[in-house]
Amino acid sequence: MFDKSWPVVVAHRGASSSHAENTLEAFDGAVDVGADVVELDVRLTADEVPVVMHDAVLSRTTDGSGWLHERTLEELRHLDASGGRGPRTRVPTLRETLQALRGRIGVNLELKNMPGEPSFDSPLERVAVQSVALVEELDMGKDVLLSSFNWLTIERVRDLSPSLATGFLTIAGIDPEASLVYAASKGHGFVLPQAEALMGTGESFVRSAHARGVRVGTWTVDRAEDVQLLFEMGVDAVATNNPEMAVAIRDRFRAVRGSAQD
Predict the structure, then answer these.
(1) CA-to-CA distance for 206 and 190, rounded, in angstroms?
(2) Is 243 exposed, middle or buried (0-12, 13-18, 19+ CB in 10 A)?
(3) Per-residue pLDDT tens for 109-127?
(4) Residue 9 pairs with which residues in a beta bridge?
(5) Which domains, and CATH codes, for the chain?
(6) Is the dihedral of CA 245, 246, 251, 252 positive or negative?
(7) Coil, strand, or helix at residue 53?
(8) What is the pTM for the complete model shown?
């Protein structure tokens, strides 16, 4: 991920406009269309196995119901995560996913541990502990970014393994400048504000971040004109549900920039 040319296209939950989100099929789809990075969400099962799922509950993306953290991996294995968008498929474990993607594409792990959810466990941060251990076991540190909306989670990652890249996610209601000050002060390599907030800041925010040694990514952008604008602003990474569209814009942008620099 970090040896690639910038800017990069991040496939949000995989190629989720054409495949069931957060499935191995969606991640393969992102690779197939030329995305640079896949973004995926990590939660823990009742038996503390890291699995790939966005929601704390099962009903939106599987044929199950109830809280994910109350189900064991064996119980999850019986659920269908296809959402009716193809053949039956399973909720993948993080191990399965990383092994499938290793050497093929960068990976952004969004670690889910949010206040208000019954699985919230700060300051233990078990999802961070388990995810870091797995990334290190598979020797994928150079290809992985670990991010979270919970600053306690990414600080735990840095405590466990300071060499791993970390990013601070924020919603539109949080001032990007404030998130940048925090990220830079804690050594996080990325600040990841929601696109609606970022597009209101102009190029000055991106320049300020780069001057502090922090890269800028944003989410989730599905209009071609917005992807183009963000690349022109100097944003380093754009997350989208439609990576095929964004890859075409990325390639044109890189070609034009390369010609201008010749």
Answers:
(1) 11
(2) buried
(3) 999 999 999 999 999 999 9
(4) 238
(5) 8-260 (3.20.20.190)
(6) positive
(7) coil
(8) 0.97
